[in-house]
C-alpha cells in the first residue's frame, strides 16, 4: 500500500510566511477500508438469515397440507430468527462499547457473583454436551468496573469454550490475584486455534471455521466485544492455545488499590 499525503497550505496573516501541513493518509485509508469491510460484512451477515427466513416462509406455504413438514420448517424459522436476534444484540453491544472512553466512574464488582452467573448462563448447553463446568478462586475478590459488561465478556468466553469443545471435557474458570492485576481465566480442552489465526480472532467477524461458528450459533462478534470491554476497563484479553488440546483466554484487569477501596468503604458508611 503506497504512502500518500494530504497537504494543506495556510498563509500566516501579514507575515509573508506560509504554513504547509502534510498529513499521512495511509492510516486514514486503512481505517476507511476496515470500516467498509465491516459494513459489507454486516449486510452479508444480516442478509443470510433474512434470505433463509423468506425461503422457509415460501416453503411452509407450499407444504401447508403436511403438518410434519410445516413443523420442521417453522423450527428452522425459529433458529434463523434467534440467529438474527443474537446478531442484532451483539451489534448493539459492540457499537455501545467500541471507541468508548475508559470508564469514568467504575463501581466495585464482586467477581464471585459474576463468575457464578456466567457459568449458570451456559449450564444448559454444557450439560447437553457432557461438558463439566468448574469455577474457582473468585469468592470474595472484587474489581472496579461495570458489572454488566464484565459479565458479558466472561459469558462470551465461556460460551465459546463450550461451543468449541468435544463431549466429556471440562471448562474451568479461575481467578488469580497478582501484585498489580486480577486475572480471570477460562480454560477449555477443546479443538484449539491454529497459531496463524491467533492474532486475528479478536477482529469483528473473523472465524477460523465459518461453518462451525454458524452451526453453534456464533455471530463472529463475541471476541471483538470482549476486547473492547477490556480496553474500556484499562485491561486486556490474552489467549493461549494449542490445536487439538485446548485454549485458555485470560481477562486481565488492574488490581484495585486496596487503600482506595477502604476509603470508598468508609464513605459508603457515612
Ligand atoms: P464466534 O461467534 O464465531 O464464536 P468469536 O468472536 O466469539 O465468534 O470467536 C471468533 C473465532 O475464534 C471463532 O469463530 C472460533 O474459530 C475461534 N474461537 C473462539 N473461542 C474459541 C475456543 N475457546 N476454542 C476454539 N476456537 C475458538
Structural class: alpha+beta
End-to-end distance: 61 Å
Q: How much helix, percentage-wise, in residues? A: 40-55%
Series of secondary-structure elements, N-terminal to C-terminal: EEHHEHHEEHEEHHEEH
Portion in strands: 15-25%
Largest sheet: 5 strands, mixed
How many strands? 9
Query: Uncertain segments of ≥5 residues (pLDDT<50)?
Result: 262-270
Side by side, the strands of the main sheet go 4-6-7-9-8
Apparent shape: globular
- Quick check: average pLDDT? 91
Attached small molecules = adenosine-5'-diphosphate
Secondary structure layout plus pairing:
Elements: E1 5-12, E2 17-24, H1 26-62, H2 67-97, E3 107-110, H3 111-121, H4 123-128, E4 132-136, E5 142-145, H5 147-163, E6 170-177, E7 181-187, H6 210-215, H7 222-232, E8 236-242, E9 246-254, H8 258-269
Parallel strand pairs: 4-6
Antiparallel strand pairs: 1-2, 3-5, 6-7, 7-9, 8-9
Helix pairs in contact: 1-2, 2-7, 3-5, 5-7
The structure holds adenosine-5'-diphosphate.
Architecture overview:
The protein has 270 residues and is α+β, with helices and mostly antiparallel strands. Helices cover 49% and strands 22% of the residues. It contains eight helices and nine strands. The strands form three sheets. The chain has a five-stranded mixed β-sheet. The termini are far apart. The relative contact order is 0.11. Bound molecules: adenosine-5'-diphosphate. Residues 156, 160-161, 164, 188, 190-193, 201, 206-209, 213, 218-224, 247 line the site of adenosine-5'-diphosphate. One of its GO terms (molecular function) is phosphoprotein phosphatase activity. Its EC number is 2.7.13.3. One of its GO terms (cellular component) is plasma membrane.
Amino acid at each position: 500500500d503506497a504512502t500518500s499525503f494530504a497537504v494543506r497550505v495556510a498563509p500566516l496573516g501579514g507575515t509573508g510566511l506560509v504554513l504547509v501541513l502534510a498529513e499521512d493518509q495511509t492510516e486514514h485509508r486503512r481505517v476507511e477500508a476496515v470500516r467498509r469491510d465491516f459494513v459489507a460484512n454486516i449486510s452479508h451477515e444480516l442478509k443470510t438469515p433474512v434470505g433463509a427466513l423468506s425461503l422457509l416462509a415460501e416453503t411452509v406455504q407450499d407444504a401447508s397440507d403436511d403438518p410434519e413438514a410445516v413443523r420442521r420448517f417453522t423450527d428452522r424459522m425459529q433458529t434463523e430468527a434467534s440467529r438474527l436476534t443474537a446478531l442484532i444484540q451483539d451489534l448493539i453491544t459492540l457499537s455501545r462499547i467500541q471507541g468508548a472512553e475508559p470508564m469514568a466512574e467504575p463501581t466495585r464488582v464482586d467477581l464471585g457473583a459474576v463468575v457464578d452467573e456466567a457459568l449458570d448462563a451456559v449450564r444448559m448447553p454444557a450439560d447437553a454436551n457432557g461438558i463439566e463446568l468448574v469455577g474457582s478462586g473468585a469468592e470474595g475478590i472484587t474489581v472496579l468496573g461495570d458489572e454488566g459488561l464484565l459479565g458479558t465478556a466472561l459469558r462470551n468466553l465461556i460460551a465459546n469454550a463450550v461451543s468449541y469443545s468435544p463431549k466429556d471435557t471440562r471448562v474451568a474458570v479461575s481467578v488469580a490475584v497478582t501484585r498489580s492485576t486480577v486475572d480471570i481465566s477460562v480454560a477449555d480442552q477443546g479443538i484449539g486455534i491454529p497459531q496463524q489465526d491467533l492474532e486475528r480472532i479478536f477482529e469483528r467477524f473473523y472465524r477460523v471455521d465459518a461453518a462451525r461458528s454458524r452451526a453453534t450459533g456464533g455471530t463472529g462478534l463475541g471476541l471483538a466485544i470482549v476486547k473492547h470491554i477490556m480496553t474500556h476497563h484499562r485491561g486486556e484479553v490474552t489467549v493461549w492455545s494449542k490445536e487439538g488440546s485446548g485454549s485458555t483466554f485470560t481477562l486481565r484487569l488492574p488490581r484495585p488499590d486496596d487503600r482506595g477501596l477502604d476509603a470508598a468503604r468508609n464513605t459508603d458508611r457515612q
